[in-house]
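From the pipeline queue, job 12 of 40. The input is one protein chain; the requested action is below.

Action: predict structure.
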Amino acid sequence: MKDLIILVADLDTENVLRGLLPRLEHVYGTSPFSFDIRRHINRDPGCLNESVDFLRPFATQYHHALIVFDKEGSGKEDLTREAIESIVENALSGNGWSVENIAAIVTNPEIENWVWVNSVSMSKELNWNESKALYAWLEENGWRNEKASKPTRPKEALEAVLRKTKKPRSASIYKNIAKNVSFLKCEDPAFLKLIDKMKSWFGKSVE
């Protein structure tokens, strides 16, 4: 059987994971693992409401299943991130998957919250060449509260920066940031859950 099947809502999320997951062996000390990614045609609501049917054929092909989608746009914005994750995990459990082998990761509000890391690498990827530091510009223009580690509206803030730098928006930006910036200080709860799951599933055994 293969290691991991991942269901995502869109290409941006897919690219973040393609940039991030291969780094875990070196950054977090996991064992090497393989993964395949599929996108749901119905995006966030599809991941929330149709993951059972989508992933059922993969239950005999993969050891683990991961579902990653945004809270915003899911149709359950009134619920907490944890409550939405529980809905998906409870639905999958007993429908071909063992509860210990599945995880739902709901980004709040969107995957762009993971992309925002205050680093030289990110500024370079966004073609930021202004005299004012990127995070200072975000605060000055109302995209970030003082001392906050992330913009209040991460997707809109990213789009504002790209307009400022005249860099075309593309999913490859997400992959490049995920491949190059340091996430060691990231405190986003959904991101930390992802890392904990990967270490739990693929942590190196102690002999």
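Job complete. The chain has a mean pLDDT of 93.
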